[in-house]
Design goal:
Nucleotide-diphossugar_trans; Spore Coat Polysaccharide Biosynthesis Protein SpsA, Chain A; 303 residues; globular; Glycosyltransf_2
Length: 303
């Protein structure tokens, strides 16, 4: 288990949010950062076009806000954020539909100061709309209402991977190792958080903290198509296993679980999940695996 170290004076913390085609949710969620007891030193929002973000709704936030333009793709957009903050100590990557408890950033800074061997931290998700129909902004705020500040010592536990909807990274390690998110995982970047976490784990520890609390709304608009996601559910684990950031055992379990869920639920799918599209994508990927044409990049030519 990670041991606390000597607490330094202060770290600079940037919040980085990649987004695409979800201007309304950005305008509804991002202003909630004003409730943080420790404000970010800057906020960076990265999107393919200026139409993806209504910057006017963010003009009065009490910290610097920067808009970055990048080609669409979660990994490309996160890399653009990394490149834009050469002097920042910590970057907190958030999904555009993730709400933070008011003490999240202050506890995050304290954690990185106390644990110098930690390079990736992920928080505790109180509710995750990504696994269901989604959570409204009002519902998410209500879940976070009244959470007290932690008076006890920070605690962490080692984890296999950060969860990309709320994942903080020590930038000195990123710079020293010239680390980047793998842009061969295009668009939604399925499992990009696991790939990056396992890469960083060669330098320092990857941990989760019960003191960093938030709610992932799991907003459905602007998500990747079922066909593309289904293809990625096969192509990406195999790609990561081949590059050794995922074990073959883990990859096979992940693929089997996804194919089984898509097959069993195709005729009685949840209203918010395109199971038939995912299953078709699974089958196309398995066909490409057999013919030697499997690649995560193949989803770029799909609808």
């Amino acid at each position: 288990m990670t041991k606390p170290g000597t607490v330094s004076a202060r770290h600079t913390v940037a919040v980085g949010i990649p987004t695409s085609g979800r201007s309304e949710i950005v305008s509804a969620v991002v202003p909630d950062l004003v409730r943080q007891t420790r404000k970010p030193d800057q906020l960076l929002i990265c999107a393919p076009t200026s139409d993806d973000v209504d910057m006017a709704t963010l003009a009065d936030l009490p910290f610097p806000v920067r808009f970055l333009q990048s080609e669409r793709g979660l990994c490309r957009q996160r890399n653009a954020i990394i490149d834009a903050i050469p002097d920042i100590d910590i970057v907190l990557f958030l999904d555009d539909d993730f709400l933070l408890a008011p003490t999240y950033i202050v506890e995050l800074e304290r954690l990185f100061l106390q644990y110098p061997s930690v390079d990736v931290v992920t928080g505790t998700v109180l509710a995750d709309g990504a696994t269901g129909p989604g959570i409204s902004v009002d519902e998410g705020l209500a879940l976070l209402c009244g959470i007290p500040a932690f008076a006890h010592e920070l605690s962490v536990r080692e984890t296999y991977s950060g969860y990309g909807c709320n994942m903080a990274v020590r930038m000195s390690t990123v710079r020293a190792g010239a680390l980047r998110f793998d842009e061969r995982l295009p668009l939604y970047g399925w499992l990009e958080d696991l790939d990056f976490s396992r890469t960083v784990s060669r330098f320092g520890q990857v941990v989760a903290s019960p003191q960093l609390l938030g709610v992932h709304l799991g907003t459905k608009n602007g998500r990747i198509s079922g066909l593309r996601l289904g293809y990625s559910q096969i192509a990406n684990p195999i790609y990561l296993a081949r590059k050794r950031t995922m074990t073959w055992r883990h990859a096979l379990i992940q693929m089997a679980r996804n194919v089984a869920a898509n097959t069993s639920k195709a005729s009685r799918a949840e209203p918010w999940v395109d199971r038939k599209g995912r299953l078709r994508g699974n089958l196309l990927a398995l066909r490409d695996l057999c013919t030697g044409h499997l690649s995560p990049l193949n989803i770029c030519g799909m609808n």
